[in-house]
Amino acid sequence: MKNLLVALGFCLMFSSVSFTQTGKVFDKLSHTSKILKGDRNFAVYLPPDYETSQRDYPVLYLLHGAGDDQTGWVQFGEVLHITDKAIKEGKATPMIIVMPDAYTNRMGYFNDMRGDWNYEDYFFEEFMPYVEKNYRIKSEKRYRAVAGLSMGGGGSFMYALRHPELFSSACPLSAYAGPKSVDEVKNMAKRYYNFEASDVEAQKYLSNYSALSLIETMTKKEIESVKWYIDCGDDDFLYEGNSLVHIALRKKKVHHEFRIRNGGHTWTYWRESLPEVLEFVSNTFHQK
């Protein structure tokens, strides 16, 4: 009887530990970039069983918006609580979530048209290889996804459209879908960077960093090699751009998910979006 009680005690203790097991977030990590000539910060979410397993995990690159940094999704997006809950409920597969900083020295996820700040090159040539070497991440396309909000939603659009061979799914949320014309690019360069862009420079930027331009020039097969989940609030000031992307994809008969929900450009909206994103990318990670 005594041995039975001891065994039951161990079982209860093990069950309690398993029940309370949570993931971990590290939001003050950094590494050195040669391309951007300095240290770059990033945050990582590790799933609950990361330290007790030997397996490799799929990865979600989760991009913050303008004015935030790598801690945005941690502090305001509650990525730890929301992801733990989704995994516990079986709605999301255990995954590693990587959150880079695109707000140190200069803001944005793209190569600057002046040629002296190449963040996109940094992301793909240095940052992605660094984290996928230092964490147990599956490095195949089918196990890699990208998502983000606002400016980070724009990053999600452009990264997945410009590098469809690298991502299985993309989830732009309340995204800035990029400029719509050469004049808009030139005005943006003048207003934000005090830079007089030539027509050639502006056209090159438009071709690279406008979701509408990229969709127009890509084939249906290329775009559909990525699974798309696009989400924007009906009161969001970026609603028009997201709707135009949806229409462009419809005209090209590209299968995608498009959601318009009640809400604006707020963390309340994005916290409600994150569980859906986690479930969507998890479905692309699974074997059909």
Total discrete domains: 1
Kindly estimate the percentage of residues that lie in beta strands according to DSSP.
Answer: 15-25%
User: Which stretches of 5+ consecutive residues score pLDDT under 50?
Assistant: 4-19
Quick one: how many beta strands? Answer: 10
Which sequence of strands runs across the widest sheet? 1-2-4-3-7-8-9-10
Keywords:
single chain, 288 residues, alpha/beta, Rossmann fold, eight-stranded mixed β-sheet, two-stranded antiparallel sheet, 11 helices, 10 strands, 44% helix
Strand-helix topology:
Blueprint: H1 2-20, E1 24-33, E2 38-46, E3 59-63, H2 72-75, H3 79-88, E4 96-100, E5 103-104, E6 106-107, H4 119-134, E7 144-149, H5 151-162, E8 169-173, H6 182-193, H7 199-209, H8 211-217, H9 220-224, E9 227-233, H10 239-251, E10 257-261, H11 267-285
Parallel strand pairs: 3-4, 3-7, 7-8, 8-9, 9-10
Antiparallel strand pairs: 1-2, 2-4, 5-6
Helix pairs in contact: 3-11, 6-7, 8-10
